[in-house]
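Exercise 7.
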Amino acid sequence: MTCSLQVLGCSGGIAAGLRTTSFLLNENTLIDAGTGVGDLTLDQLRKIDHIFLTHSHLDHICSVGFLADSVGGSRKSPIKVYGIDATLSALKNHILNNIVWPDFTVIPSIEHPFLQLMPIDLGQTMEMGTYRITTLPVNHSIPAIGYAIESDSGVLVFSGDTGPHPDFWQAVNAYPNLKHLLIESSFTASEQALADLSGHYSSLGIAKDLENLSNQTTQVWISHLKPDGGNHIIQEILAASKHLPQKIRSLEANLVLSF
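Solution. The predicted structure, written as tokens, is:
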């Protein structure tokens, strides 16, 4: 059985028509929960049973609390939120703290909350019925992970936020049937120092590291482009990667990727 991943948001910031990172997998699962979640209908929101978070930065988690508030009362079971310990601790202590937002992990009751936090480990694989999802090592400014999602017919990898990391590429190359690689780039070549400081890829950094990708037929999608400067970033990537066999495109909202 194939899987589908709808891009709800993939921008490194906000502006008209731009939404931050969030993907809808097979109608019932979110990969990150940025502002793009808000474009789903109420009926679509009610179908979401699982949220897999890459890390705790606000552009990736801001809709978790809104989602619980919008549909928690009409559900029979809590929405399960998966993440590494550092991510879930940040979400619990700094967002769901009854100051910034109600703590829906105990509301309306401890026995029947709207949200259930589900700790996961680096390298862990979870069987989710129609797909299998595995956490991948990445290199960001805070603890973070990427995800490999496997269906019966292919694999999609999402890096989340990351800079260069040899272990990531080793993990990616372990999937010979990799159909799609969604990987970020947030800065131009002239902003390399800022990319290094913040744990992101620059344009030339990702172009260089894509040489590590062993599967020549994988479709590469560049995400997390900044609203101001994103076109420059993708142009630099394309110019520096002309020698690579893979097709490279910028990721866009509303795309649906099958694998």
